[in-house]
């Protein structure tokens, strides 16, 4: 024999429903209006500079491009010197000399260590040359 009982409402089986609170912004209305206006002014100035550049603006950008080109030429020239040195390096008589500004010096004659150092320097120079080349190519006069 079974008996049915009515489910009693208790604090354990009742789900509490709470209305979600709406997020409210408590900011100054003037601040919200100023930011888009400032961004709009900067955007207008940038567009105006691109569409109607002044002679002075163009010359300044050309000077910047020349500086970037000089940097690229210097870095790639040193990389070429390193490549030539590595090509002509016979590992039997190679030596490296390090010196500081205070006239301390250090000479290294171990071919295995010299090869590791040159490999590291070549890798670093390759990254620097690549970065300088990207700067020149991506620069817009």
Describe the structure.
Residues 1-30 are annotated as: Disordered. The chain has 141 residues and is mainly alpha-helical. Helix content is 60%, strand content 6%. It has three helices and two strands; from the N terminus they run H-H-E-E-H. It has helices at residues 29-51, 55-88, 111-138, and strands at 96-99, 105-108. A two-stranded antiparallel ribbon has the order 1-2. Helix 2 runs antiparallel to helix 3 (111-138). The longest helix is centred in the middle third of the chain and has 34 residues, at 55-88.
Low-confidence stretches: none
Q: What would you report as the Rg, rounded to the nearest angstrom?
A: 35 Å
Helix content: 55-70%
Secondary-structure element order, as H and E?
Answer: HHEEH
Structure classification = mainly alpha
Mean pLDDT comes to: 79
Largest sheet: 2 strands, antiparallel
| General form | elongated
Strand content: 5-15%
Total number of beta strands: 2
Number of helices: 3
Query: What is the strand arrangement across the widest sheet?
Result: 1-2
Give the N-terminus to C-terminus distance in angstroms. Answer: 94 Å
Region (Disordered): 1-30
